[in-house]
UniProtKB/TrEMBL annotation:
GO terms for cellular component: cytoplasm. CDD domains: QPRTase (cd01572). It catalyses: nicotinate beta-D-ribonucleotide + CO2 + diphosphate = quinolinate + 5-phospho-alpha-D-ribose 1-diphosphate + 2 H(+). Coiled coil: none annotated. This is Nicotinate-nucleotide pyrophosphorylase [carboxylating]. Residues 52-126 form the Quinolinate phosphoribosyl transferase N-terminal domain. The gene is LOC111162203. It comes from Enhydra lutris kenyoni.
Length: 312
């Protein structure tokens, strides 16, 4: 199946990087799909005797507004059950319900075996992308050009899906795991015996390949972290009226140190955290609290025009 071209100008689409799917290793996608399918059907699939193996087709419908994300995971799941997916909308599309998003073909029992797993994954990934897109839009409307990012507050076993959703929505994924950035948090400072010792230890293991970020609770800690060699300072749980003067004072002394704001930030209050001395704003709610989008998969008879069933 040929990849779709991203349209040059279409206000109905939220364009994302066309190559984002290349970030997802095929073997990892296959392994995830296998695990999800095995969780849902670890033994006999009794419903398969109801449907049989006759060739069938179904349409994927989007029933709530948002951003479409998660096509590679949807494809991987149905590939594992010998079904083929044809997409009508590109990744990152703005969904206006009720929208016909894709068509799936394959043996009836296989199609229905993959249905719930594929819908769950697509709904969750699209929900994260939609929340990320809303956060980025709020930041841009506030006139702020910094980085909106997620956090490591992800669902166990589902991190790749949620981090990918952030990227499709236009946000940054932040560190993928503990190896992506040396993050020195409050508990590390206590265990190490202070900011200077903690940063020194972090710099030893980070070497030239990784950046070191330090979570700070005051301007004094932020200055200590910067003096010790931190690349970034995380001002965590600061109120906006405290955040901006602290960031300004730190940048005045250490203009090359990045400043991240986090803690208690939502889509509603995000503009208050945007400022000229803030480089990154991270929101755990983009993955923790993003509502899933509503999708459904409806079979239709060959030779008929698929129409979303009317509500009773």
């Amino acid at each position: 199946m040929q990849p779709e071209r991203q349209p040059k100008c279409n206000p109905g689409l939220r364009l994302s990087f066309p190559g984002l799917a290349l970030l997802l290793p095929p073997t990892t996608l296959a392994a995830l799909a296998d695990n999800w399918l095995r969780e849902d059907c670890p033994g006999p699939n009794h419903a398969a005797l109801v449907t049989g193996a006759a060739p069938s087709q179904a349409v994927l419908w989007a029933k709530s507004p948002g951003v479409l994300a998660g096509r590679p995971f949807f494809d991987a799941i149905f590939a594992r059950v010998n079904c083929q997916v044809s997409w009508f909308l590109p990744e990152g599309s703005k969904l206006v319900p009720v929208a016909r998003v894709a068509e799936v073909r394959g043996p009836a029992h296989c199609l229905l075996l993959g249905e719930r797993v594929a819908l769950n994954t697509l709904a969750r990934c699209s929900g994260v992308a939609s929340a990320a897109a809303a956060a980025v839009e709020a930041a841009r409307e506030a006139g702020w050009a910094g980085h909106v990012a997620g956090t490591r507050k992800t669902t166990p076993g589902f991190r790749l899906v949620e981090k990918y959703g952030l990227l499709v929505g236009g946000a940054k994924a932040h560190r993928y795991d503990l190896g992506g950035l040396v993050m020195v948090k409050d508990n590390h400072l206590v265990a190490a015996g202070g900011v200077e010792k903690a940063v020194w230890g972090a710099r030893q293991v980070a070497d030239f390949a990784l950046k070191v970020e330090v979570e700070c609770r005051s301007l004094q800690e932020a200055v200590e972290a910067a003096e010790a060699g931190a690349d970034l300072v995380l001002l965590d749980n600061f109120k906006p009226e405290e955040l901006h003067p602290t960031a300004a004072a730190l940048k005045a002394r250490f203009p090359g140190v990045g400043v991240e704001a986090s803690g208690g930030i939502t889509l509603v209050n995000l503009p208050r955290f945007c400022g000229p001395h803030i480089d990154v704003i991270s929101l755990g709610m983009l993955t923790q609290a993003a509502p899933a989008l509503d999708f459904s998969l409806k079979l239709f008879a060959e030779g008929t025009a698929p129409v979303y069933p009317a509500l009773p």
